[in-house]
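FAQ: What does a ligand-bound record look like?

Like this one, built around pyridoxal-5'-phosphate:
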Amino acid sequence: MSQAFFKTWVENKKASGSYATPPRIDGKNDAIIMINDQPIINLSSNNYLGFANHAALKEKAMEAIQSHGVGAGAVRTIAGYNDLLETLEKTIAEFKQEEAAIVFQSGFACNAGVIQAIALEGDVIFSDELNHASIIDGVRLSRAKKFVYPHNDFQALEELLKLHRHHYRHALIISDGVFSMDGDIVNLPSLVKVAKAYDCMSYIDDAHGSGVLGPYGKGTVAHFNLSGQVDFTIGTLSKALGVVGGYVACSQVMKDYLIVNARPLLFSTALPAAVLAPLNEAFKLLKQSQSQVDTLWDNARYFQSLCIQHGLTLLPTQTPITPILIKDEAKAVRISKACLNDGVYISAIQFPTVPLNTARLRVMISATHTKEQLEKAANIIAYHVSTQ
Ligand SMILES: Cc1ncc(COP(=O)(O)O)c(C=O)c1O
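The answer part, i.e. the structure of the complex:
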């Protein structure tokens, strides 16, 4: 290993035209962002409901800094936990219709920590091929054997289970709830059925489902009316909830186990009050009204219909995540740059985030976009897809 090796790697990537550099954004991340003093339509944020800049959430963050200070002090198993964290975990458990919840520093830390803690030597994990990187890393950190099944294909999963399940002690089936780069939804009824038939625990990462799918944005499990049927439901507090953090909703027994075994809880400082207090407010808003979630879906349907009218190739999304397939990586980066020059920020997603030769422009719709902004953005994207 040497610096020269990595210098060559970076030079080659840049020479290929597929080295993408994100822009510097001045000020807040919202439907309109400022880049180089220009207002730009932002189609690259997971701020689905606009909570990242919600006045009530900002107010709660400022109050919490005054009452609780800016840092948590240490890991929760050493420094203890505060009232805000206690309220948040109770709120999440209730929202997800589960017995308990544990809050982590991020969704990534949650997947890495929980999977590693529950899948042990002699166990086996069955994981969807399109699962998020944090699941893949959690699986790598565990000592369990892994089998990857074709995307959302529960017949194929059943074949794997028939062949391998009986060789292992405990088994875990893991899937994204909403697939983050494609926008489609797990076939949860089939997953739950197969898990029961083959004595497996089930694990759904609902980072992009929470706040988006189901009544009041309760997520993928509620969307399928399967509350109580999934052993672990993961969520993030950084996307629809607008701040940062992750959580697992589960039984009280599993909470009692994880709280002393999940390594991010044992070895990484807890979230500060300025994060916890606005999250409590975000859940309060979600429970009060369905209107932000409805606006998000209305905007998504509008934008997706514009894309179809323009002849753009959409991957078969079922959610506001709108992936426009380009395939060629360098072309996707060129289109992304051209759109930015014309006032639309849309990131080019390429390998290793998605499989090779499936580069795409991933449009993230928010409840805070106006119809005019979406129409303008669709025109600009369609123009550059056809001319680049
Ligand atoms: C499916 C999925 N899981 C987990 C994460 C990680 O969440 P966080 O950003 O809170 O670390 C993401 C974020 O991109 C995601 O899309």
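Follow-up question: can I read anything off the structure? Yes, for example: The mean pLDDT is 96.
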